[in-house]
Amino acid sequence: MTQSNAARQSPSSPRPEGDLPPSLVARDLECVRDDRVLFTRLSFELRSGGILQLEGPNGSGKTSLLRILCGLRLPDAGEILWCGESTSDLAGEFHRDIAYVGHLAGIKRELTPLENLRVTIGLGRPRDGVDLEQALDEVGLYGFEDVPVRNLSAGQTRRVALARLLVARAKLWVLDEPFTALDRKGVAYVERLLERHTAEGGLIALTTHHTVNVSDTQVQILNLSEPRFRPE
Q1: DSSP 20
Q2: What pTM, to 2 d.p., does this model score?
Q3: pLDDT tens digits for 15-39?
Q4: In sequence order, what are the residues at sequence separation of 6 or more whose Cβ sits closer than 8 angstroms to the Cβ of residue 33?
Q5: How far is it, in rounded angstroms, from Cα 126 to Cα 135?
Q6: Less Cβ crowding at N or C end of the chain, within 10 Å?
Q7: If we measure between CA atoms, which residue out of 48, 56, 46, 36 comes closest to residue 199?
Q8: Given 3-state DSSP classes, what are the helix, strand and coil percentages for the chain, each rounded to the nearest 5?
Q9: Phi, psi angle pair for 168, to nearest 5°
Q10: CA Rg, the chain, in Å?
Q11: Where in the chain is the domain with CATH 3.40.50.300?
């Protein structure tokens, strides 16, 4: 993965109201599960055009941290700031700025890919002039728009989740193993998608066991197994 100190931006960059560049700051986060401290005193700062890649062995708290970042669970200590404001004060406003793709992809299996995308734009901020069928075509699901997700393969289901990223006007992408179940072409497409989002000023927090090839992007590696994040 190539690292660069200069994050790329374009005139079409997704930005918060007030034309301020988006930023995500964590201060002294702590996460406890089943009376076990997964991490403590964890802090970072992610700016417009940047990627935060979480590393560490299974059980180190990577998925838990992603869930904390997108508001699916609360930290046991510490706070998260979005564009300088505590996320606890922003509520729905912050959630509309996030697109989350987890292990289970967040897809309703009884619905078709097209219906899933309609749900997505109903919950968040759809991109202006968004074309749902075009988004499905771009991720390689042309001809599968009206097939129930339960009849799709694991890779195709993951592509439905990726199409949600295309139609949502989210500034922050939180991705848990986004390359899971994808073939080589799918992996290359996701890498291009990450580059496109950061080039437009977006932010990405992700976990992956895959070696990501992303150029001209500011990347931070945060290893949760480091002693500084472990309880004393």
Answers
A1: P
A2: 0.85
A3: 444 557 899 999 999 999 999 999 9
A4: 61, 64
A5: 12
A6: C
A7: 48
A8: 30, 25, 45
A9: -90, 135
A10: 17
A11: 22-97+179-232
